[in-house]
Amino acid sequence: MSDEKKLRTYMQIGDSRLLNIRVILDENIVYEGMVEDAPAEIKKLKYSSVNMGNPIECYVYSELN
After folding, report:
1. What's the N-to-C CA distance of the chain in angstroms?
2. Rounded CA gap, 4 and 41, in Å?
3. What is the signed CA dihedral for 58, 52, 10, 1, rounded to 10 degrees?
4. CA 22, CA 32: separation in Å to the nearest integer?
5. Contact in structure between 59 and 46 (CB atoms under 8 Å)
6. Could you read off the pLDDT of 29-56 as tens digits, one per residue?
């Protein structure tokens, strides 16, 4: 991913509802499951990009959160 795209953040993961997600933090999978079942620290993360699919992949970078 280019650095320009990496610098953007969007809403928190926990703001979504009824989605099956995979959270990828700094290129490592840190959570997979329903948004409502995610731990609080995962819900607080803001994503930089999303790949639609099943599950939806949310890319997160620690330096932006």
Report:
1. 17
2. 25
3. 70
4. 4
5. no
6. 999 999 999 999 999 999 999 999 999 9
Residue (of 13, 11, 4) closest to 57 by Cα position: 13
Residue 20 to residue 38: CA distance in whole angstroms: 10
**Rounded to an integer, what distance in angstroms lies between the CA atom of residue 51 and that of residue 40?**
22
Residue type, 47: Y
- Residue corresponding to tokens 């989605």: 19
The 56-60 sheet, strands edge to edge = 28-34, 20-25, 56-60, 49-51
Is the model's pTM score more than 0.90?
no
